[in-house]
Amino acid sequence: MADPVHNVIIIGSGPAGWTAAVYTARANLAPVVFEGASPNIPGGQLMWTSEVENFPGFPEGVKGPELMERCKKQAERFGSTIYSENVEKIDFSKRPFELTSESGEVHRARALIIATGANAKLLGIPHEKDLMNQGAGVSACATCDGAFYKGEELVVVGGGDSAIEEALFLTRFATKVTLVHRRDAFRASRIMEDRLKSNPKIALALNAQVCELVTEKKKVGPFEKDWLVGVKLKSTKDGSVTSLKAGGLFVAIGHAPNTSLFTGALEMDDKGYLVTKAKSSRTSIEGVFACGDVQDSHYRQAITAAGSGCMAAIDAERWLGEHSS
Ligand code: NAP
User: Fold this and answer.
1) Residue 126 CA, distance from chain mean position
2) 2, 11, 74, 132, 301 from 121: Cα distances, Å
3) Strand blocks (E) in 158-207
4) Left (φ > 0), alpha (ψ -120 to 50) or beta: where does 254 sit?
């Protein structure tokens, strides 16, 4: 017997992917979800977030991994089939589309929903990922984590609009924010640069790179864990090293969308994000829909990703209805 042709395959398991799964499952489309496997973390960027306080419906907050686990259960409850594998290849020229998974198995689907997300770029210095994972002083999202740093002296890295936006936002909580940038000219827009420079709570450390994270043991509940207390800065001009107190470090040096699988097939912008057609999740190929951070370099929130996952599910359902012959 030939392998079944699925109505819809969803690639990715962050808030966008799971929301698309819940909606398509409830629409009786029996979706198949490829949730990914190492080195991609099923659940996406929220797996690196400790507490999520801004997702509606959780007045006490919720841990990022727990939120993703709950979304997965909800998708399963309505009959989604989940593969804990990465997709290795997609043949967009065939109808139905043909996906080859890591195990070499071929899966076919009439419609695809891409929700592969994006990853914050990191500095790549020792302990950065661990501290971020444990919510112990390193973050790549001021909107998500800024409120945990009331009364602290904070450091933001980057010279683009995101870094400046994060630095300005963090002045609501911090006593002082130092923006560290590797050059002395900003990539950010002039208006943002002006706002940055006129904010009395913000100090600049230009021509500098964060080269080391300084930690101390801190008691958190019954546990002791390493916590960020400072950073070391290396001058990009003369290599000299200075120390700076930091209760929190926010890395804002850009994001990279996970789109290598679609290179040459789907339309992307100059940063590699998938292009979706106005007010929809439609991509440049009929029957292929995209949602979440893989197509959004602007809002990048769990709730906006979830919302766009819903859009993709509705778009896919309608498209399948119109092309069901
Ligand atoms: P971006 O514009 O690419 O800026 C990244 C910044 O990080 C650059 O200043 C870069 O330095 C620095 N950087 C990169 N790698 C680094 C490293 N390894 N170590 C230290 N610094 C490093 O990224 P973005 O700020 O996230 O912005 C992305 C897009 O979203 C932009 O188009 C931006 O305009 C837009 N955006 C707009 C708004 C707004 O309008 N309110 C807000 C946020 C973002 P160099 O300059 O030396 O390369």
Assistant:
1) 21
2) 43, 21, 30, 12, 16
3) 176-181, 202-206
4) left
User: Please, are residues 8 and 75 in contact by the beta-carbon 8 Å criterion?
Assistant: no
| Residue pointed to by tokens 């419609």 | 111
Query: Is the C-beta atom of 160 inside 6 A of ligand 1?
Result: yes
Ligand 1 neighbourhood includes 165 CB (under 6 angstroms): yes
- Per-residue model confidence as pLDDT tens digits over 214-255: 999 998 888 899 999 999 999 999 999 999 999 999 999 999
Domain boundaries, the chain: 5-119+255-322, 122-251
CATH 3.40.50.10090 fits 122-251, yes or no: no
Nearest alpha carbon, ligand 1 atom 19: 123
Cβ 297 under 6 angstroms from ligand 1: yes
C-alpha 159 – ligand 1 centre gap (Å): 6
Does 123 sit in the ligand 1 pocket, CB within 6 Å? yes
Query: For the domain 5-119+255-322, what is the CATH code?
Result: 3.50.50.60
What torsion do the CA atoms of 273, 278, 281, 282 make, to the nearest 10 degrees?
Answer: -90
Q: What is the pLDDT of residues 10-55, one digit of tens each?
A: 999 999 999 999 999 999 999 999 999 877 778 888 886 767 888 9
Nearest to residue 202, comparing CAs of 155, 146, 158, 160?
155
CA of 187 to the centre of ligand 1 (A): 7
Residue 110, Cα to own-chain centre: how many angstroms?
27
d(CA 8, CA 316): 8
Distance 186 CA to ligand 1 centre (A): 9
Give yes or no for residue 254 CB within 6 A of ligand 1: yes
Residue ID of nearest Cα to ligand 1 atom 41: 161
Output the pTM of the full model. Answer: 0.80
Contact (Cβ atoms closer than 8 angstroms) between residue 292 and residue 308:
yes
Q: Which two tokens stand for residue 256?
A: 């990279």
